[in-house]
Write a structure and sequence with these properties.
By secondary structure, the protein is of the alpha/beta class. The chain has helices spanning 54-57, 85-103, 115-124, 151-155, 157-163, 183-190, 197-200, 221-231, 256-271, and strands spanning 3-9, 19-25, 37-42, 64-68, 106-113, 136-140, 166-172, 175-181, 206-212, 240-245. The chain contains 9 helices and 10 strands. A hairpin with a 2-residue loop joins strand 7 (166-172) and strand 8. The protein is globular, with a radius of gyration of 18 Å. This is Related to ectomycorrhiza-regulated esterase/lipase/thioesterase family protein-Laccaria bicolor.
Amino acid sequence: MPSTKLYIQHPLDADRSCKLVGILERADANLSTHGKPLALILHGSMGHKDYLFQRKLAPLLPMDSFRFDFRGNLESGGDWSLASLPKDVEDIQVVVEYMKREYGYTTTVLIGHSRGSIVTCKWIASGSRETQDVEAFVNVSGRYRMERFRYIQEVHAESIQKRGYGIWKVRVAGKPVEVKIYPADIDEFANWDISYIPSSFPPHIDVLSIQGMSDGIVPPYDAVCYALAFEQRKGGEGRHTLHFIEDADHNFAGHHDEVNQTIVEWLTRRARKEPLSLGGLWRSRL
């Protein structure tokens, strides 16, 4: 599958040189992209476009796809902040508009992991013109009860008391990275509202939630909360399907193939208009 690295000028960032960097995967580079459906693949906190299952997922999808680094992550410009969720939502809008304007793509499928899922859900519910083309959303390890994130303040309590901020140490693309976490950012992140789903998330969109049952970052019950919220939508035929993966952690270590197979099979069954679940659960079996 041919891939192309794109550098998208960000018109909303204070730094006019800021660019979003991503990879466009095309099934056939010789075919026109005008009017074709596109899937966006969105990473989580301190992640990047090729982490976890995402790079391997792209060539398996039944459509062209684009995955990119949010601002402040890996190759993209701009600054990262724990509380910059609204900027992540802006990034999605910028990318969707660019892919439509430059390639003629219609973004119909969005696949988000963790933070990427949270902001994708918000973008879809934003009501912009481009969101009207969305048909399916895949929510992988999305946090629902945002207030529970406040535990992070206790984790970094000593550093916050000493310096005024915590230091989050992670590895990104194999390299050590340190970012500052301020109490105000923790509050803003924990106060992010998700109660809009029953009233504002488009009721015609089908949703698949995938959750690891051994997730130590996002409590597995949050996936049930999403299921309940999406099923409360009125006026449309969109359904929610939930798939739990036993023994899988937040990043699905050792389970990437099952994540990808589940996403691809779910999208394929959608396209064929086949049943997506049994009692709301994917591939239910005893």
